[in-house]
Amino acid sequence: MFAANFEYHRAGSVAEARQLLAAHPGAKLLAGGHSLIPLLKLRLAAPEAVIDIGRIGELRGISNGGGALRIGALTTHAEIASSDAVKSGAAALAEAAGLIGDPAVRNRGTIGGNVAHADPASDLPTVLIALDATFTVNSPDGERSVSAADFFQGMMATALGEHDILTAVNVPAGGGGSAYVKFSHPASRYAVVGAAASLTVAGGTCTSASVAVGGATAVPARCASVEAALAGQALSADVIAAAAAAAGGDLGDDLLGDVFASGDYRRAVTPVYVQRALAAAAERAG
Amino acid sequence: MDPADLRLKNFIPADKFPYKSVLGWEYDSGNYQAALEKAMDRIGYAELRKEQAEKRERGELMGIGISSFTEIVGAGPSRHFDILGLKMFDSCEIRVHPTGKATARFGTKSQGQGHETTYAQILAEELGIPAAHIQIEEGDTDTAPYGLGTYASRSTPTAGAAGAMAARKVRDKAKKIAAYLLEVSEDDLEWTPGAFSVKGAPQKSKTIQDIAFAAYTNHPPGMEGGLEAVSYYDPPNLTFPFGSYICVVDIDRGTGKVKIRRFVAVDDCGNIINPMIVDGQIHGGLTMGMAPALLEEISYDENGNISGGSFMDYLVPTAMETPRWETDKTVTPSPHHPLGAKGVGESATVGAPPAIANAVVDALAHLGVRHIDIPITPEKVWKILRDAGAGL
Known about the structure:
Chain A is an alpha+beta fold.
């Protein structure tokens, strides 16, 4: 299908994007286009105006400072997947970015566009929740920071208001280990179930664990019972398996399902992926 | 009993061909044992069975599936086959131009099977004209000779045969012209690809190009000029290609995902005209055969609405899901086809689904599994494992 007609505006700077947003109520921001364009073509969205921010240089790139990675909203999945800073500081994020779609998607799709779209089967939200990322938002009242837990509010719903522009994603570059493992849907490569785990280890025991699962629920679920079962434990295979076994219970009652994989099935395989993500993260945490 | 032994014991023995089946069809030729044994040898069957037994002890899921098949292709003999009364022969019309190049038209139509290559090779072989000098034309009903088209693996068995027969008619006329040009009797001529020469005096010869030119400039008195022929080929029988496929799968106990570790396909389509095209047909057919086994399904909800209405839900295999196909062959020529060839287009779509499904069932056989409806999705296998208490 073709998209409904819309006006196209290209912004050269964040300030210009802001002016265009103010001038065109209901307009959508276009970054890499790999979430918005399909929505337009399926006519699930029909904004009167699209504001292309895809060429704003200041929104692109990865910097490392103060124990955190600042990833510009227009940084592509391919850039994240191949970044040494991300690989060493937030391995799960590099891993997840490298598993999105195919090379064409990874070379066009951006982290900002991905998280602003908030598809429940998307990989990055799961990882960013597990890594306790924060989102820098440019809004008419100035800049504000939103935690991942607050950012993702529902299926394709975020804390971004109509006049907000997501400018960067900040990821703590921790000393621990993290990993992301997923069951790709054969057609879309979106996550049927995707599990992200981040662990820190000191003196042979787990000092902190954070685990999230996406694909199974409208918003990636934080697995509190898994995290609690790991804290203070030596991370043996048995401990990891026992902790992961509880993951299905952290998903709540409202599971997503389709013709390929029912909600029951997604819940059942969740511990398998959590266990695999934990095992990989534990190995990286040393 | 081992599934391979069961098949080897029950195959029609090679010395019983042509074999009249109880349904009345006469299988033209076959050597089913040789194909299965070759596949077993290629994949290392005995070793795999040993590995499977060890893995089963450890609770790992691995299966080996065999599919041996016979196809019935090349419809068909006009006494048995018609469409609304139209006899199912197929056709070829060849015109050799004064330049020695040729144009040939067929009653079939390639949809990507490479007829332009295969047919040109058949004519090149029969006439000694380089394949690059033969223009193949198909699919224009204003100009094509009457034929029943391309489907059911019938193009090589029917139109390919018509090509060979028409070429032989051209060659017969060429021989008369050569005899006239060389001033000898036809009986004194022998054919080496591309030329007729006088027996015992090979320096006295006329190439097919010489003859083609003479056909329009210096043809024998009493003979019509030109060098062309038509064949409407009515096959005396169908052709019966066959093969044996062996598939090895590993199953993830946690998710029920099936991974095809190896797949060996031994096909026998009689004499092969172009090995690369046959291989391409088999690769495509195996991938297409894997699709219903593991992926593709038209599913409906309780109200009868289609629930996989787009390619986001109807899972067509891509390179991501496709394993490395290992192809091999045996060659048992058809005794009645002029080139000894059989069809091959659909062999792999016939053989692949049962080989894959058998491998999955084999991996789960110790749990009492004897059948799984295709497509075998991860969720279906997971349910079986859950119900048998064999999951993770």
